[in-house]
Structure formats: structure tokens, C-alpha cells
């Protein structure tokens, strides 16, 4: 049977591109998002939900297990960002960012891990950001939500290691997607200047790291965080 991969946030952007990529490699892909899917493929399933809706997440994972009997990979891709000075950031904005970025990652990790523990194998990849090690002004809350994910990743990797489940995180630099269209060019240029390799990231760069983490030969790699572009923590 093909590998079964769950990807959160597949309605648009990187998540949608990742779903299409893994479908092209004959994976069974299960995605989710707040809106309906635009992907039409016999090996794709889509759930319309909010990643921080506990009941919806539990029901989604149960449905996947019932249909396919297993989950090989989880990519906690869903995320939102907000570029604001901390003084002008509303409390509601903070709650929204943590709800999607951290609570969503927690819920999917918890529910998918239950399936993976029974099958005694699995790969989980979480998402952080270069904004965290670079301490970028205007991204305090976004980076804080990702810092929580990094610590969660490293601790959970220890908890799940006895079940042959690896948990790692990728920290992309800016990728040419809808998310950065609204950011001033000078801010992007300043960020790129802090990288060892001076360019925007690409979808291929992200896929390369995810594939490395998810490779069957990578069963000795867990609790690791890889930032793209040559950014040091």
C-alpha cells in the first residue's frame, strides 16, 4: 500500500503545493483547511476544519484510520503569521496565532501519534521559522508561537522515540508565496542579508528537508531543527 501522509493547511500556498507534490509520487494524501479543496485526485481526501477544533481533528484522524488503517507521515504545515510591533498587537491576534500555529500542531501530533504508536513507526515534521533565531522585530508573537513548537518538537521526540516515531522541525526562510506579498521589499532584503545564502527559499528547498526527515533511512534522526538559508540559532 502507498504511504499515507497527512498535511495540514492544504487549501492554498505551500500546503497545497506539498499535497500536489506527494500525489505525483503516488502517496495517499489527506489534507485539511478552513476552505474547500481545489485538488481533484482519487488519492486525495480533504477535511474542511479549523486545526484548533479538537473534535474536528479527532474525527478526522479516526476517519483516516478507518479508511486506510495507518498514517505514515504527518506534516504540521498549517500556520498564520502577523507582522506587528508587540505594542500594537491585539490580544485576539495573539490567541489566533497560537491557536493555529501551536494548538493545531499539538492536536494533530497527539491524535496522529496515537495511530503511529500502534503501528510502531511514523514520521512527524513540524514547522518553525528563521524569525525565531533571528529575533526579527515585528514578529515577536509569530516567533514565540514557533519557539513553543521547537520545544514541543524536541520534548515529544523523546516521548515517541520508543515507538520508532521521529519528530523533527523545518524552519523555512521567506518563500515566494502569498504570505510575504504584503511585506515590504526592504524587510525581505534585510532578512535575506542575514542568511549565509542570499536568496529566497523555494518549494523544492522545503521538500528536500521534509523528504530527508521522512526517508526510511532517517530513523536515527529525531528532535532536530533545520533552518534554511544558513541561519544559526
Molecular structure report:
Helices cover 44% and strands 15% of the residues. The chain has 233 residues and is an alpha/beta fold. β1, α1 (13-24) and β2 form a beta-alpha-beta unit. It starts with a strand and ends in a 6-residue tail after the last strand.
Identify the notable features of this structure and list them briefly:
233 residues, alpha/beta, seven-stranded parallel beta sheet, 7 helices, globular
Quickly count the helices: 7
Number of extended strands: 7
| Element-level helix/strand string | EHEEHEHEHHEHHE
In whole angstroms, the N-to-C terminal distance is: 39 Å
**Percent of residues in β-strands:** 15-25%
* Strands ordered across the widest β-sheet: 3-2-1-4-5-6-7
**In terms of quaternary structure, what is this?**
single chain
Which word captures the global form?
globular
Please outline the helices and strands.
Blueprint: E1 4-8, H1 13-24, E2 28-33, E3 44-48, H2 54-68, E4 73-75, H3 91-119, E5 122-127, H4 131-134, H5 140-160, E6 165-171, H6 185-193, H7 203-214, E7 225-227
Parallel strand pairs: 1-2, 1-4, 2-3, 4-5, 5-6, 6-7
Helix pairs in contact: 2-3, 3-5
Give a nutshell description of this structure:
This protein is 44% helix and 15% strand.
